[in-house]
Design goal:
Largest sheet: 7 strands, mixed
Catalytic activity: L-arginyl-[protein] + 2 S-adenosyl-L-methionine = N(omega),N(omega)'-dimethyl-L-arginyl-[protein] + 2 S-adenosyl-L-homocysteine + 2 H(+)
GO molecular function: protein-arginine omega-N symmetric methyltransferase activity
CATH class of one domain: Alpha Beta
Family: Belongs to the NDUFAF7 family.
Oligomer: single chain
CATH architecture of one domain: 3-Layer(aba) Sandwich
Helix content: 25-40%
Subcellular location: Mitochondrion
Organism: Eucalyptus grandis
Shape: globular
Amino acid sequence: MFRWRLRSTVLRRTPAAKRLLPLSFGTRQVTPCEVSAPPLRAPFSTRVVGDEPVLVRDFIRSALYDPKHGYFSQRSASVGVLGRSIKFNQLEGRKDYMEHLDQIYRQTDISWFTPVELFKPWYAHGIAEAIMRTANLSVPLQIYEIGGGSGTCAKGIMDYMKLNAPERVYNSMTYISVEISPSLAKIQRETVGQVLSHSSKFRVECRDATDRSGWGDRQEQPCWVIMLEVLDNLPHDLIYAENQISPWMEVWVNKQNDRETLSELYKPLEDPLIKNCLEVVNSAKKPASPSGVRLMADTLWSKILPRPRRCWLPTGCLKLLEVVHDALPKMSLIASDFSYLPDVRIPGERAPLVSTKKDGRSSDYNSYLDAKGDADIFFPTDFWLLERIDHFCSGSLKLHEDASSSKRGKKRRTITLDTSSFMEEFGLPSRTRTKDGYNPLLDDFKNTKFYLSVPTHNVK
């Protein structure tokens, strides 16, 4: 889910408003064993973290998705739904568009609008066209959407199929939304139900998509899975090393004795999901040539100028794709998300933005530990790493394979496209162009990409 940032054409999750917090922030002393956050300011401290330490991914999951105290439970009503589509062709240009968007935000007091909402129905129509060109239409079309938001994507895709697909394709299709939020599930049913013929083909399963039991028996028929702005909100883990040559340790979140302060605990690397994800991450990096001189230099610098290392691992993405590939082995995937984020204050590779909105103003936190259910936590997606995870979960990437097995054909064909490239190929860019030629869908989404992955029979 995207929000706007006015100072450049880069998108981030903040409403169309000026940034009020300074970008500089103070440093904190870090000991080898723990790092403390400032005292908690929101009333969620005793609820997001219990009496026992939790892994960072479990802390993030609670801060975002706890049914009573999580951010999306608290703020689900702030996900915007436009009453009518924006008439881009009637706007003069970028200034006129931004003023129109700012007016919408002020009138609705909405925290954010997703791109599928801002550009409806054209954004969803582009996704539908990509499915139409790639799907095997000789079998019933089955689509799963994970995290369907307000249901605008589902309705847009089904509208497109009704108007453009062969009648038998629309009549036999099913569209299943897997939604963890009960309030959003209700909104989705209402949105799709605006077209009576859609209702019999659409259903919402209110459950956690990462829970394998919710998917039931393994399904061998081809299908599509759509994930729009889902990866950025999936829980991540954090690993830490004292210096350049120290081994990685897994990070846990713990309460201090005062019960009002959260801190990090560092433990030896033992969690299987973290270890698997780290192996995939390492496999995605180009192997460095062994060098005794380089090792000696690193050892020397680690003693003279020790530099702590922090790395965020997309363990939530790994778990989700493991589950989906196991449940739907012949699924095709379309995912869209941030490729990078501006103004990130939190340290570490692939670090998130943690942002909250109060009294109509957005502000960023300096620590993820400040998120107690009142702040959004969202991560950039490393699309090269996403491809590796996808291949690993499908079984075509073996982390410890020999030379002969590495020559086997891949089980999936994948491609990553900039949002503008994707929409120029599959969408109708003329529909989102203003009078002077400015096109926000093509011109402003510079830090978002689409990932497409389809199964192949090129396996010996």
